[in-house]
Amino acid sequence: MFKKSVQKFSGKICEVEIGTGEKAIKLGGENVLPFYSFDGNTGNAPKLGMDITDDLEGWPKAILELYKDVCNDPVAWAKCIEEKYAPDFICLKLDSADPNGKDNSVEECAKTAKAVVEAIKTPLVVAGTGNHDKDAKLFEKIAQELDGHNVLLLSAVEDNYKTIAAAGAMAYNHKIGAESSVDINLAKQINILVNQLGVANEKIIDNVGCSAAGYGYEYVISTLDRVRLAALGQNDKTLQVPIITPVAFETWKVKESVDEETWDNLEERGISMEVSTAAGVLASGSNAVILRHPKSLETIKKFVSELLA
Questions:
Q1: For residues 206 and 227, is the Cβ–Cβ distance under 8 A?
Q2: Where would I find the CO dehydrogenase/acetyl-CoA synthase delta subunit TIM barrel domain in this sequence (predicted)?
C-alpha cells in the first residue's frame, strides 16, 4: 500500500498578535510550507487587510470613486471598510506626514491615528511615509498616543529601528514591522538588530519587500521562499517571524493599474494586478497581505479558504 511521505521541519514560525479584544488576530504558528496542511500544522490562516490614507494625492480614481462619500475622513473610511467588507485588519497610511508632500506634523498624524483606532474594533496597522527620519519621530509619537491598542508599526529599517523598536515594542508594547529590501541576508540583519535591542520575535513581523507582478516579482517570490525554508528547514530563529506584504502599496501605482485607458478598464486591471501579486506572495510564505479593492479582498479570501479546506 502506498504511504505518502510527510515533509517535517525542525523550525516553527512564532505567533504574533495584533489588536485587542475579540477581533485581535494572530499571525504565524506554522511549521510547514504555506498551505501544506497534508504535512502538518499550517498555523493561523493568512490575514487579509485593507488600506486607507490621510492624503488622497496619487491614489487611483477607481478607488476614490468607490469611497467618494468617506475618503476625505480617515475615521469614516475605516468604519465604512470595517462594516461593509470586514477585513482582518485595517492599515492606515499616514501619507500626509511625507516631508516631500504635505509634511503634516507628527502630532496631527498621531491624532488621526488615535481617532481611527478608537473608532473601530478591527486591529490597526499604521504605515509611515518611507522617510526614515520622519518615520522615527512619527512612530515614536504614535506608539505613545495609541498605548494599549497593540498596533503594528510599519516599518522599522536599519536607519531608524532603534527609535521605533524602543518606543513601539519596548516602551508601549506594540508590534514592529522590520523592513528589508528583498534579500534574505538583509531580512536576517534587521531582525538581529531588533533582537539585540531586547525585542523578542513575538513582537516582530517582517516586511521583506514587495513589487507588483511583472516588476522583479520573481525575485520577491524567491526571497520569500528562501526566508521560509531557512526558518523552517535550517531552524534559523532570526527568521522565524511572520511576514506581512503591503501588496496594495505597489500594485496600484504601476502603469497596468493607472495608465493607458485604451488597454481596457483601469479598475479591473488594478484588481487583476493586486490579486495576482497577493496570491503569489501568500503561496510563498507571507502571513498577511494589505489590499485596497474590495473585489481583491473577496477573491483572495476565497483563494485562502479553498487552499486550506
A1: yes
A2: 15-256
